[in-house]
Amino acid sequence: MSNFSIVKSNNEARRRRRRALLNKTAVAVILQQQEARYVDLRGQYCQLNDKTPAVSLFFGDGDLKKDFRLSRESVNALVEALVDEHIHGWGRELEVAVFLYWLASATSYRVVSEAFDVPLSTVHMIVHRVAKGILQIYTKAVCFPSEAELEVIGAGFAQLAGSPALNRVAGSIECSHIRIKPPGEYKEDYYNRKLFHSIQLQAICDHKGRFLNAFFGLPGSVHDARVLRWSSVYVQQLYPPPGWCIIGDGGYPCLATPICLMTPFREPVQGPVQARYNKHLSKARCVVERAFGMMKTRWRSIFLKALEVKSTFAPVVVSCCVFLHNLCLSNGDFVEPGDFPQDLPDNNEMQHAVEPGDNIRRRLAVAVSAPNACIDALRDHVY
Predict the structure, then answer these.
(1) Distance separating alpha carbons of residues 327 and 11, to the nearest angstrom
(2) What's 204-216 look like in SS3?
(3) Could you give the C-alpha distances from 289 to 4, 174, 219, 375, in angstroms and in order?
(4) Any idea of the CA torsion for 284, 203, 136, 332, to the nearest 10 degrees?
(5) What does the alpha-carbon distance between residue 214 and residue 322 come to, in Å, rounded to a whole number?
(6) Higher pLDDT pick, 382 / 132
């Protein structure tokens, strides 16, 4: 090969490298320009309109309880507790504001969209994303107590009952009906004895009204005792621990196993011992009704009318309300329970002359009536 051919080949190679470098540089410049344009548009799209009343109130210094149903301390605690996994330009604060406003008003996504001046699809996305985020941290607020906390709870129930014989009570259990829109299928299963469609919410709370466990989703036509039998607390014997009991109304069976559940003696009672036991048990048991009343008062738009969501999403909304109830109690954010009609016990089931836990109940009744004495009927029982 001649020298001329070698020089020509080298020049051609240099030109190809130069063109490749120029093309690479041009592509990089174009990508940078597109990224800058995207960031600029994203910033404009996610810019808050602080002129809307809902946004100005939430990010201002005023009281949030009227429109968002939570104090500012509780809102801040919720914002800090949520896991920051959002992939949208909105911050956690605004997403919490949108979710709480929707939960407090129980209105349509369109109304919330207009209140915050954000797209309708964004409101739907935020509501479902925040609800999912709450479910991820649900067990941090709704959980069973430790052994040390059990002693405090037992002392609290004894004080509520006005009798030291009930110092081994670990919780109060109750069911409540949550109104829903009739589902497309099997709607007759959701039609309860109160003549409306609902799902069942079974909850156990401590002496302060904090929920320790919640089980929901079963159709409203299911009896309270059957809800208990299908719950994880009963099936897996999760609560209470041995030597302790939970208390409930006459709609539940009196049990010694697989869990210890104490209920009132059925009317008419046989003598003053049973009457005195029923009276003290009712004083302690009513704390769960008060807890339901507080939660329903805070979220009265949710619980006083049918939930305007799909039946599959309704249990998620209820679980968020249970979580927020405990969160508010932890931050000293209390509301007085309103006047709600109480769920009367349905005594069509479990009408046994002698119930499985009747032996323990009789011993407790004697302990309640014993002057200056506390017979530890639960601790002495062989499970």
Answers:
(1) 74
(2) EECCCCCEEEEEE
(3) 100, 7, 21, 28
(4) -30
(5) 8
(6) 132
Number of alpha carbons in the 13 Å side-chain half-sphere of residue 86: 20
What is the spatial distance between Cα 275 and Cα 267, in angstroms, rounded to a whole number? Answer: 9
Token reading at 23: 């093309």
Q: What are phi and psi of 112, to 5 degrees?
A: -65, -40
The rounded percent of the chain whose pLDDT value lies above 90 is 52
Apex 289 CA angle, 285 and 290, nearest 5: 105
Residue 59's identity, in one-letter code, is F
User: What per-residue confidence (pLDDT) applies to 347?
Assistant: 54
Q: Within the chain, where are the H helices?
A: 3-45, 53-58, 65-68, 72-81, 92-105, 109-116, 120-136, 138-141, 147-161, 224-230, 232-235, 272-298, 300-303, 314-330, 358-369
Q: What is the pLDDT of residues 240-293, one digit of tens each?
A: 999 999 999 999 999 999 999 999 999 888 899 999 999 999 999 999 999 999
> How far from the centroid of its chain's Cα atoms is residue 374's Cα?
36
For residue 261, the surrounding DSSP H or E stretch is strand 261-262
Strand 245-247 to strand 261-262: parallel, antiparallel, or no bridges (unpaired)? Answer: parallel
Which residues are bridge partners to 245 per DSSP?
Answer: 169
Please report, as a single letter, which amino acid is at residue 159: Q
Return the closest-CA partner of residue 301 out of 310, 309, 291, 289.
309
Digit-coded pLDDT (tens) for 70-124 = 999 999 999 999 976 655 566 788 899 999 999 998 888 898 988 888 888 889 9
Rounded to 10 degrees, what is the CA torsion of 36, 40, 45, 51? 160
Residue 66 sits at the vertex; the CA angle it makes with 65 and 71, to the nearest 5 degrees, is 5
Q: Are 118 and 173 in contact (CB under 8 A)?
A: no
* Helical pair 72-81 and 314-330, crossing angle rounded to 10 deg: 120
User: What CA–CA distance (Å, rounded) separates 366 from 280?
Assistant: 12
Q: Which two tokens stand for residue 199?
A: 């799902």
| 3-class DSSP state of 217 | strand
Q: Mind listing the pLDDT tens digit for each residue in 218-249?
A: 999 999 999 999 999 999 999 999 999 999 99
- Predicted TM-score (pTM) of the model is 0.82
